[in-house]
Amino acid sequence: MRAQFVMSEIGVGLRRNLTMTFAVIISVALSLALFGGSLLMRDQVSQMKGYWYDKVNVSIYLCNKSDAENSETGSKACAKGAVTPEQKQQIETDLKKMDLVQTVHYESADEAYKHYKERFGHTALASVVTPDQMPESFRVKLEQPEKYQVITTAFAGRDGVQSVEDQHRELDNLFQMLNYLNWAALGIMLIMLIVALLLIVNTVRVSAFSRRRETGIMRLVGASSFYIQVPFIMEAAFAGLIGAVFACLMLGAGQYFVIDHGAALRAKMELINFIGWDSVLTKLPLVLAIGVLMPSLAAFLALRKYLKV
Fold first, then answer.
1. Which residues in 41-55 are b (16+ Cβ under 10 Å) and which e?
2. CA R_g for the chain
3. In whole angstroms, what separates CA 241 from the centre of its chain?
4. Nearest to 42 by CA among 279, 241, 264
5. Distance from the first to the final alpha carbon of the chain
6. Contact call for residues 175 and 49 (beta carbons, < 8 A)
7. Could you tell me the pTM of the whole model?
8. What's the rounded Cα separation, in Å, for the pair 148 and 151?
9. Sign, CA torsion 252/256/260/263
10. What 3 state SS string does the chain have?
């Protein structure tokens, strides 16, 4: 098979269906950009989980006199009174015995009051809060942060314990929302992908119809089906490759202008550990491969039905 003939046929097909080819390129570019963005979002969520789960603690708040006095109108957890030194010592001992626990930090009521004033001292409520109203607590750092529920199960409801609060739950809500957004992006990507496939099939049909005389002659002189199909498949693959290149450019532009420069979210949101260029670059070959293979397969299947000579 002569490469010159194939390339000339590709050029003829692209020129005859320039508008539809352009639509295929745009659809493929948008769908693959969403696909790559979804993969990067998944990497970002995983990286944020690893970063934040390693930093947050599980807090075990102890009952104080104020909690015990208000137990009838509020929570029943402190109905037996404020935490005793023995209960406090037993809780700390049990925590340190657990293999899951990495460190245990005790925070007194005075320390809790000091931290409260530092964070909320500008509010009206801060002026009426007294140190004796602040609960003592144990701040627990875990070896395996994702197993924080073990601490909740072991200490919630114990005498002297007001509540067990894990900051991971708040993070779980955030990550769940991000996962929902990721699924939404995948849904839009799927719709765009279907549109791109339909455009590819229609483009191939129009191209095959416009060249039915040439393909008929090729069949009469003994050309194989594969020989006839190759130019059409290559046209679709070429359009898909251009769309994939645009998708890669959009992903790179998003990393450069949104994360690193321009909006510079990395500098403005220092608490978030953003993904780097290594994550972006590892996704580009996959985007390019799908951009070539997907249109080629769609064209091959369409030709089996519509290329009748």
1. bbbbbebbbeebbee
2. 32
3. 25
4. 279
5. 20
6. yes
7. 0.63
8. 6
9. negative
10. CCHHHHHHHHHHHHHHCHHHHHHHHHHHHHHHHHHHHHHHHHHHHHHHHHHHHCCCCEEEEECCHHHHHCCCCCCCCCCCCCCCHHHHHHHHHHHHHCCCEEEEEEECHHHHHHHHHHHHCCCCHHHCCCHHHCCCEEEEEECCHHHCHHHHHHHCCCCCEEEEEECHHHHHHHHHHHHHHHHHHHHHHHHHHHHHHHHHHHHHHHHHHHCHHHHHHHHHCCCCHHHHHHHHHHHHHHHHHHHHHHHHHHHHHHHHHHHHCCCCHHHHCCCCCCCCHHHHHHHHHHHHHHHHHHHHHHHHHHHHHHCCC
Gap between the Cα atoms of 154 and 146, Å rounded: 15
C-beta of residue 237 within 8 angstroms of C-beta of residue 295 = yes
Retrieve residue 183's tokens.
């699924």
Q: Under 8 Å CB-to-CB from 18, ≥6 apart: which residues?
A: none
CA 5 vs CA 1, 11, 102, 229: distances in Å = 8, 10, 69, 13
Yes or no: say if 178 and 38 are a contact pair by the CB < 8 Å rule: no
For residue 81, which of 71, 90, 92, 73 has the smallest C-alpha distance? 71
Amino acid in the structure at residue 29: A
Q: At what angle do helices 18-53 and 277-306 cross, to 10 degrees?
A: 140
Residue 305 corresponds to which tokens in the numbers above? 């039905």
For 121-163, how does the pLDDT look when each residue is reduced to its tens digit (9 = 90+)?
666 666 677 777 788 888 888 887 777 788 888 888 888 888 8
Q: What is the pLDDT of residues 206-262, one digit of tens each?
A: 766 666 666 666 666 666 666 667 777 888 888 889 999 999 999 999 888 888 876
Question: Does residue 172 surpass a pLDDT of 80?
Answer: no
